[in-house]
Design brief:
Helix content is 71%, strand content 0%. By secondary structure, it is mainly alpha-helical.
Length: 147
């Protein structure tokens, strides 16, 4: 739960806040859990929604967009850090699927249950997210490779 929150929030304190909120929501809504899916799937969905809600509230308060991509010369020096710094710039649907599949290791069927989309939609959004990441990474890779 914390690692999922951290991937969305990119900040330890915010991820802890989201995790705490999720525990409270799970406790309050446990009686409403229908059992249509696994308990872990239900908790993942609450975690993702809670993190995204917090990001949306913050985005409304800030004039600076999280879609701004840093200059190729700035930012993390390793590829993993660079990729993680670019995740927030993905459109919301792509970002959800990218984090859940490529970072959390969930299957498309599980992602579909969590996000309320079809398995095909999950695959499509992951493909588009990866394509967007490749486009965003191209200037950095060219810069590093001296092209």
């Amino acid at each position: 739960m914390f690692s999922t929150a951290y991937r969305f929030m990119r900040n330890h304190q915010d991820a802890e806040d989201v995790t705490q909120d999720v525990f409270i929501k799970v406790h309050r809504k446990m009686a409403k859990f229908r059992g249509d899916s696994a308990l872990s799937t239900w908790i993942y969905r609450i975690t993702v929604n809670t993190a995204l809600d917090l990001l949306r509230r913050r985005k409304r308060r800030q004039a600076v967009s999280i879609d701004d991509v840093p200059e190729p010369s700035a930012g993390p020096s390793n590829l993993q850090g660079l990729i993680e710094s670019m995740i927030p710039s993905l459109p919301e649907g792509y970002r959800k699927v990218f984090v859940l599949h490529d970072i959390q290791g969930l299957k498309h069927s599980e992602i579909g249950e969590i996000l309320g989309i079809t398995e095909g939609a999950s695959k499509s959004q992951l493909h588009r997210a990866r394509a967007a990441m490749r486009r965003k990474l191209a200037p950095y890779l060219k810069n590093r490779l001296g092209m």
